Amino acid sequence: MVCGIIITIYTLLLLVASLLYVKKRYSIEKGALTRTAFKAHWVLLAITAAVLLLFVTLSIQYSLRNELLKLPVLMRWTTLLWGLYLLAYIDYRERLIPNFLICVLLIARVAFLGCNLISDPEYWRSILLYPLIGAGIGGVILAVAMLLSRKGVGMGDVKLFITIGAYVGSMEIIATLFYTFVVSAVVGIVLLLMKKVKLRDSVPMAPFAFAGVAIEYAFMLIGG
User: Fold this and answer.
1) What residue ranges are annotated as transmembrane (predicted)?
2) Euclidean distance between CA atoms 197 and 107, whole angstroms
């Protein structure tokens, strides 16, 4: 019960932060928000709330049943999902991965690592090694994809998967990348068949990254 209350409050705080960030970003940089645009942002936040609360509910259910997932783990995944959802929205609208949000996610990851080191100092090598390897794998694979894709993948996407790798670690980053590429390929084929995009058109990566992380998290909970 206490875990559920804390996660719910934490999720609501993240949603309030996302509201403030979206409002500031699109009122200052894009001009005053119209009523239609404001409603669109509220739709985004409502969907975000539903998605995050769904994963929080599943997390608490499986943690109580199996005693595998503790509160810091739930908060870490919730933070990553929130950040990726916000990045997906911005990337879809602007074809841009804001450095500010990447920095916020990395700072949060360092804070979670600090908590882990304080609670389990004897495992400091493993605590630090897995996120670093995950970040390295994510960054290297996306850097290679950037070189091969000829501007289909940008430097923002590389930084995005460095951040994701730091969160999910070396054990889950490969599966996360696999799910991301599968979802992007399926969506790309559908858009091509519908003639919404052309073969050489680029598509935003962050929405597919969010889907990949969400799928990996769901499978981790089910498998746990």
Assistant:
1) 6-22, 42-62, 99-119, 125-148, 160-193, 205-223
2) 36
Is residue 88 within 8 Å of 209, Cβ to Cβ?
A: yes
Q: Which two tokens stand for residue 218?
A: 């769901």
Tell me which residue range forms the domain holding 41: 2-223
Residue 126 has pLDDT above 60, yes or no: yes
Long-range Cβ pairs for the range 181-187 (8 Å, 24+): 181/208, 181/212, 183/208, 183/211, 183/212, 183/215, 184/208
Which of 122, 114, 197, 206 has its CA nearest to residue 160? 206
* Total count of domains within the chain: 1
pLDDT at 112: 92
Give the C-alpha separation, 79 to 163, whole Å. Answer: 12
Give residue-wise pLDDT tens across range 162-202.
999 999 999 899 999 999 999 998 988 888 887 777 766 67
